[in-house]
Design brief:
Layout lengths: L5 E2 L5 E4 L2 E4 L18 E2 L5 H18 L10 H29 L8 H7 L4
Antiparallel strand pairs: 1-2, 2-3, 3-4
Length: 123
């Protein structure tokens, strides 16, 4: 049996196997070529709540980029680097939150949706 990608309730979020991916279409105002206007990034997250949080943040970043005049017709590799850096930053932040919660014993489930939203509102 082959594992197919499956879309979920958050835009551009899909699961392949046990890992979540962010798979956006790049708006034409940001990308010169019509060739391969889709990007795909592994969020390196098996947890659906964390992946939803990350995908929403990345979707917001992408929407904001459409309105920045200085980024019109950005190169694909620049967009990839920017989104990859943000994914790495969010994964590090979530790892730090889990580590701190385990060390203090302050929360039974540090990866829960409410816990992530409360701690990551500063992102």
């Amino acid at each position: 049996m082959t594992v197919m990608a499956r879309r979920h309730d958050v835009q551009n979020l899909l699961r392949r196997g046990n890992i979540w991916y962010w798979h956006p279409r790049i708006p034409s105002v940001l990308f010169q070529s019509d060739h391969n206007r889709k990007l795909s990034f592994s969020l390196r997250q098996p947890d659906h709540e964390r992946a939803k949080f990350m995908a929403r943040r990345l979707n917001t970043m992408l929407a904001e980029l459409r309105f920045r005049r200085d980024l019109k017709m950005t190169r694909e590799d620049s967009l990839k680097k920017m989104f990859k850096a943000e994914i790495d930053r969010m994964n590090d932040l979530m790892d730090d939150i889990v580590t701190a919660a385990k060390a203090t014993g302050s929360h039974d489930n540090p990866g829960s949706n409410r816990s992530l939203q409360a701690r990551c509102n500063s992102i």
